[in-house]
Fold this protein.
Amino acid sequence: MSKTIGVGLIGLGTVGGGVVRLLQDSPCSMRRRTGASLALKRVAVRDLGKSREVPVDASLLTGDAMALVRDPQVQMVVELTGAPQAYEWISEALRAGKDVVTANKALLAERGDELFRLALEKGADLMFEASVAGGIPIIRMLRNGLVANRVESLYGILNGTTNYILTQMTRGAGGYAETLRHAQEKGYAEPDPTLDVSGQDAAQKLAILCRIAFQTTGTAKQIFCEGIERIEPQDIEYARELGYTIKLLAIAKRRGEEVEARVHPVMVPSEALMANIHDVFNAIEVVGSSVGTQVFYGRGAGQMPTASAVVADMVELAERRNSGAGPAIGDMIIGDEATAIADMRQVELRYYLRALACDRPGVLAQIARVLAEERISIASVIQKERDLQGGTVPLIIVTHEAPEAGMQRALAALGRLDILEGQARVIRIEAL
Ligand SMILES: NC(=O)c1ccc[n+]([C@@H]2O[C@H](COP(=O)([O-])OP(=O)(O)OC[C@H]3O[C@@H](n4cnc5c(N)ncnc54)[C@H](OP(=O)(O)O)[C@@H]3O)[C@@H](O)[C@H]2O)c1
């Protein structure tokens, strides 16, 4: 007789509904794989009176998630709420030795260290495939498939909302505000899009990936983060003229003993693979010491892709429990060997700089002098036609590699000169 593992699901929204659907649709194939049945014992929601798209036996529903966690019929807790109480529920489950699956990137990026240690101490497992890049099994790839590799670098388009907005802007659909509005109408952006457009969502995901790929213990707050809010159609147009496409990338690269970890808009060569990941799709390019470059591509969010990742974790846990194998959380615990995240100010990059300069003799020389004082050398300059009304000239400068700190000082110095209208804009360039 096959063993039954009691599942407690917290959250029956977009992802939770998808998980219930998958459990209802394919119980046989899961049982074949695990030798055990996953049986939904309790489902916690916030509003018991809400009508549900996915039918769930009303007797399973509860408004008390902590009671679900403590229910002896529940051996596996699946947290799919993103609620502030998630830490309490997950830690309580782990303390009781119950396995946990979560999609909560914000929590793992912030308090993953504590939770992984607690799981190890209590002989429980904590799995989180859905927390990064939805349906793409990147966590499993890094932890298992690429385990024989030292990861050298990782580039990711980890946020579908920003990729959609930049794709639309690149296709000429309008400016940032207008394109964001479209994305909201289509359900690709939240009513409050801050977490996505500011790059913080991608930074949380990068913090999780960096822990696995580079053994960092830093939180998302230690990752340099700049959003797409200031990208203008002119930047996209000038990028195209220079042979680049603008993407919001999450980047991690070894640099000596440290690792660079940063999220910001990047100009990438238009023929590069990352430049051709469109709309809400996600992609991650990993360079491993043995495999070389590998690329993972797919849907980074949405009900069924994300639920697919959650159920994969549930099946793996059931398989482990049924075979008597212990938890496999050891690789998530990082001790004294933790890799430090490099200081962004010392990272060396090439830059695109756009300024609206007064149309006077000697202006270009003054800008060049400011850059030279920071030892930033110019690779090329494009001067556009003067704006007859404003008497200003758009100037586009591409630099050779220079430290971030020098570029920031140069920007501040340019701001103090009275030769520019508004602030100069900078976008970092990545060769890939
Ligand atoms: N949506 C995606 O594509 C996606 C992708 C990757 C990761 N994630 C992550 O997955 C998690 C869930 O996202 P979602 O999009 O499914 O959210 P959602 O549609 O807003 O659903 C949240 C669910 O949690 C329930 N809930 C909230 N607070 C609760 C509480 N205090 N007690 C019990 N239940 C509570 C809600 O109950 P009611 O239904 O009664 O309101 C709802 O069923 C989040 O951590 C998110 O970051 C989502």
Observations:
- The domain at 138-299 is CATH 3.30.360.10 (Dihydrodipicolinate Reductase; domain 2).
- The chain has 14 helices and 17 strands.
- The radius of gyration is 24 Å.
- The chain has a mean pLDDT of 95.
